[in-house]
Amino acid sequence: MSQRGRILIVDDAAASRDMLAAIYRAAGFTELVLAADGPAALDAAAGRLPDLVVLDLVMPGMDGFEVCRSLRQRPDFEDVPILVQSALTDPADRTAAFMAGATDVVSKPTDPREILARTRVHLDHRFILRELQEYRSGMEREFAMARPIYRGLLPDPAEVAALFAPGAAGIAVASVGDGFGGDLWGLAVLPGGDRMLHLVDVGSTGAVAAVNAFNVRAAVDRLMDPGVGCAELVGLVTDTVAEPGESLPWSGFCCVRIGPGGVEWAASGGARLFRLGEGGRLRPLPPGMLEPGYGTAVLASANTLEAAGGLDTVELLLAADPDGAAHAIVGRARDAGRNGAAALVLREAA
């Protein structure tokens, strides 16, 4: 059976080279390159990259130690296994071989079973590592294509500014960064003029976060309707995206509807609405309608609030600059490493 793998054999003794080549051919290896000295080995390696190097340590001129060091200086040789052969018995020589960049050391005279076993182990590792690297490269390309789509799920800042009068509501959203995850939010204007916002903390990162975010956003867009209240929308989205018996694809999901009739909100998981009460303290509000006189309320996911420094910090930010508090909350969360963060500050019109 043919074995895959290009093997470079380096030995100054023709008999040793021929014996190794015969061992490998008998085992099914057909891509063999033979080099009689160090410079020839470097020339051969400069062409098509081998998958394994079998290298004799004791050679005239450029010995195996120098060949090994020279190969390891090449970036493309970082993961190529180098199997050195030597009749040297001093442990210091074996240590020197590893220090020079050898992957493994095999003693001479050559035992065909041992060298074949070690060869297969190192080639298997080489091929698995290559496949993982190719898979990672493919994932990085796909992520690069998906990032602008993911960012495109966020409302346009100009649209937000046009829909919310200064002093009535402040909204801030941090960039999703180079990855996926954290808070993702959306905004829609319903027939009749009500504005409905949703905030989802997808919790995880990477591909899982991206898939969850797209699924939730698609469900919200499909189910949002003027006749659907926040609590009903949260329930419908939950039933749509969550498989029976499985955990929810978010750490928190909430909906806020703002209109002439007041402010309605509902949530699932770790997303809360807090009202700024006496003494500048934030108190959690139960889902439902905000009664007139609520003053100032803050909506954010639990993870964003924690990253921003907790409720005590948010209270200080509101006291220092109510109009800029939403941006300040998001900025602190982003600085703390939150991949995506959103905060809504509602300020009741006087």
List strands and helices in order, with pairings:
Blueprint (H helix, E strand, L loop, with lengths): L2 E8 L3 H13 L2 E7 L2 H9 L5 E5 L7 H9 L9 E5 L4 H10 L3 E4 L4 H40 L5 H7 L5 E5 L7 E9 L5 E11 H18 L6 H12 L10 E8 L2 E8 L1 E6 L5 E3 L3 E3 L5 E6 H7 L2 H10 L4 H11 L6 E6 L3
Parallel strand pairs: 1-2, 1-3, 3-4, 4-5
Antiparallel strand pairs: 6-15, 7-8, 8-9, 9-10, 10-13, 11-12, 11-14, 14-15
Helix pairs in contact: 2-3, 7-8, 9-11, 10-11
Q: Total domains, how many?
A: 2
**CATH topology description of the largest domain:** Phosphatase 2c, domain 1
Overall pLDDT confidence: 85
Portion of residues in beta strands equals 25-35%
Strand order, largest beta sheet: 2-1-3-4-5
CATH class of the largest domain: Alpha Beta
Q: Span from first to last CA?
A: 84 Å
Helix amount, in percent? Answer: 40-55%
Q: How do the helices and strands follow one another from N- to C-terminus?
A: EHEHEHEHEHHEEEHHEEEEEEHHHE
The name of the CATH architecture of the largest domain is 4-Layer Sandwich
SS-based class: alpha/beta
Question: Which residues sit in consecutive blocks of at least 5 with pLDDT less than 50?
Answer: 166-170
Radius of gyration: 32 Å
Largest β sheet strand count, sense and barrel closure: 5 strands, parallel
Count of extended strands: 15
CATH superfamily assignment of the largest domain?
Answer: PPM-type phosphatase domain
Q: Give the overall shape.
A: elongated
